[in-house]
Amino acid sequence: MRRITRNLANLYDFHLCKYDPATGQIEHFTKPQPEPESVVRLPYNNVVRYLRIRHGLKFIISKEDLSVFDVIDLMKSYMTLKDCDFSALEQIVNEDPTLISLIKRVADLALILSHSFPAIPFLRKNSNESVTLSQKQASIVLANAFFLTFEESRDKYGRSDCINMTRWFSSKTRNAKQKLLCIFAYFRYVTSHDLLGTVTILRQSLPSSLNFSLYDGPVCDIFVDSTTKIEEVKDADQAVFANARVGGGVMRSGCVQEEIRYLIAPEALISCMVCERMESNEAVVIIGPEDYSTYTGYGDSFKWLPLEKEEEMLRDQLGHSCTTLIVMDAVNYSNRDNQFEFRFLDRELRKAFIAFSIRVNDHIKVASGNWGCGAFNGNHQLKFIIQLIAASAAGRTLSYHTFGNERLAQEVQKFHSTLKQHQVTVDTLYEALISADPDIAKDPFEYLISKTCT
């Protein structure tokens, strides 16, 4: 098997800025380097509408006694969706009137969009392309998303290019207030600090067929933890349990692992705008997004918490922070038994291998966990086995996080220790998995131990 090293210097690695590691300064380009074939639709592409937007943003900035209703009226004057509810925005501003001055600063950011982006590349499926933005440029995009300046429509690629925060403003949206607290924490930071880094969105595909029978090396080393969150593992690339449409339900009511990861690191939201839906043979990597919030809970219990950010951030030669997110989508099983069929095993193995094989830094470790085991009905033991095979073939070590499930953590550790004790190789484990009879569904760990360790 192989690893894929991406140095972001290929023909289809698009750069909207350039970071100088010697000075820590960023140069913004007047056009993408090189020029892309497909681009994101930006608000200023509709000239008449954008003139109304600019006029309204200037009004927001200059009005001395600005109210939340002025902000709402502005959005309603140009937004493409009608009959929208802004009750969550009203409530949060009424509870914290200082947000009005912050909203003015966000309007300042939004207003400079046309001076910052002649174009933003759109990363199509199977394109092996990337786009690098400065953190400043990312903040300008997100400021426009806050003011709902993107048009909500779809093109021939099925993309909407729309990361408008419309649904976060409605009390009808679950977790709306908590999502607003996350984005306001982000805006509070980026409007009061110099932004010195970059963020890259990268997609990578591999051939549809991979033969794990050819890899006769040992299973990789692992670290198992039931309490630490994936995002707390700073010396590893961090898995994001994604939807094929990157971002999942983050701009709506969704608030599980993928959505939460993007909420606490809003620069990752840019991926929702620039990425076409993922195919089964590709993954997306987000390099350099920083955390601006932390949290407690999950789903309906999700609650925003403030984060004390580090003032000094270590960066690589291109300006990225040390955080790398590996975005990988799982199959949704309406019938749980289907996941043990070869076609689904093969699909999940390929997806995990593609995700784990991409290297953009010095991290050997990948932090992952119960991938696709919530609403998608994945079997916890099976998903560990799949990721163990993929990580081993990709030359990784695996930091495995069971999200409070101590029993599963113990089972994973015991299973892995037994494989190591009997020197089971990846090809042996793979062959036992794909040739298994229906009994494997009862207890995948016990079944595979009986087939490989006797």
Automatic annotation (TrEMBL):
Record's keyword annotation contains Protein biosynthesis: no
Domain of life per record: Eukaryota
Family matches, as Pfam families: PARG_cat_C, PARG_cat_N
Classification via InterPro entries: PARG_cat_C, PARG_helical, Poly_GlycHdrlase
Annotated source species: Bursaphelenchus xylophilus
Biological process according to GO: ATP generation from poly-ADP-D-ribose; carbohydrate metabolic process; nucleotide-sugar metabolic process; regulation of DNA repair
Name this polypeptide is given: poly(ADP-ribose) glycohydrolase
Residue span, PARG helical domain: 101-203
